[in-house]
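for the writeup, i need someone to sanity check this before i put it in the appendix. the sequnce is what the collaborator sent (i think, or maybe the updated version? ugh). structure was predicted straight from it, no edits. if anything looks off just tell me and ill rerun, i have time this weekend
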Amino acid sequence: MSHYKLKSLVLTLWLLCCAFIALSPSASHALSIDARTLEQRLSAANLFGFTNTEVANLQRFYKARQHQPIWIAPESSRLEMALAFIAAADTEGLNSNDYQRHQLQQLQQQPDPSLQAATELEIRTTHAMLSLTRDLSRGRLTATKADADWHIPQTTFDAASFLQDAIKNDRLQPSLHNLAPQQSSYQVLKQTLARYQKLHDHHTEWVHIPDTPSLKPGTTDAIIALIRQRIAQAYAADGIAEYNVTPSKDPHYDDELVAAIRAFQAQHGLNSDGVIGKNTLRALNIPLDWKIRQLRINMERLRWLPKDLGKRYLLVNTAGFRLTATEQGEPVLSMKIIVGRDYRSTPSFNGALSHMVLNPYWNVPDSIARKDLLPKQQSDPSHFTSINMKIFPNHDRNAEAIDPDTIDWRSIKHRFPYVLRQDPGKSNALGRIKFMFSNSFNIYLHDTPSKSLFNKDIRTFSSGCIRLEKPMELAAFSLGEQNLSDTFLENLDSGKTMTVHLRKPLPIYLVYITAWVDEQEKVHFSPDIYGRDLRALHYAGW
């Protein structure tokens, strides 16, 4: 068991104990309920304000067990276990009040409960447990409604069967513990949420840094003292060693603070140059409550993903501008990426990498030809020639190419009557290699000649496809090799276009995660470049 998984287990057990103490004055409920009473109550009109669908589900659930109660029984600890589980929903980024926590607490704490109250407690607890187990397993929100750009199917989950089986096999507690995602990234986000929520509960507010011109290392400015205070708060929140700066009102931007700022920049998806510019100031001034909401919605996104991503897979985080290759649960390759512009945003979807194309042609989509490339040719009549771009008439690539000098480019206004294809070479927009997988978005991964763009903070420069910092390393991983073979490299150097098929399809997931965990299990925050956090949070009401 990893360090973080052990910590998570200890934390979970501690929270369960705390919830038990808070919610339960007694170890078991004194009353018992007979099957007839329970059946009659379930048949009553307007059952606790539940929807018709919810009532029907409860009726089917109890009919399957001959209307025998689950929670209200002498010498049973199930009720306390369930109530503690519900109380701990907040630690998962959910809201325990969505699962009737207060109603259940009031019913359970009655000193002399009636049979009617005990029956209500039984039914409400089951209703809450069915809802919470489902939400923890597959997400509370309907992914496609919360995020219109999410196209990864949510897993199905039969909460009723899960609960029946867990009780029948006397494995309720371990079954509940394993419902939420177990990967370390989720657990680290959960631990971070607990720390941030504790600060919030103590009415902590970040020190606000006013706008100021860029501050370079070695400069002196009165605002430096405020930045030191803010970094000290970051240390209390995240515990990152570099944030533990010496308390001081010294206005000098010294080496110790520079190291802290560089670490802060790295954590927030910025270039770690130590220069305190507008992007760094913006990150320093993100409110604590927003970061809490950010953690919650990204924990929800992780619940949307399949439980098992595969033994070997690629995770492309468009919000974090990073691709990670994972094998046997461990990240083995990580690289920077470039993603789609805000008006050509890269969607979230999954597939399987099937083959690579060496020295690819670029068949230019019509929208890119018309909106992006035509204006450049109109400004510079030699542009297409300089980048080895071929022009074909009437969208027919089998026709003879047209000399660009014979075309009056300035006369083209709306309809683009040609098709463009860029030959392989150093200037090819796809670089030397592209990685293909079937999808309806015409998106793939590829090399790029524009290496300098990887030095930018916000890397939204593509038309939707993913540009790679380390394409050769990804090629080796995709082929299951430590190093690329001589034959592969010779084919690549030949300049000839050819296809290399993978021995086995490689699962790939393109996701939008703005709070994510790196290989060292450190939490990073990324800007909400596409506004999907904001829209999802609005939909959720969080």
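The CA atoms of residues 55 and 347 lie 37 Å apart. Residues 1-7, 13-28 have pLDDT under 50 and may be disordered.
thx in advance!!
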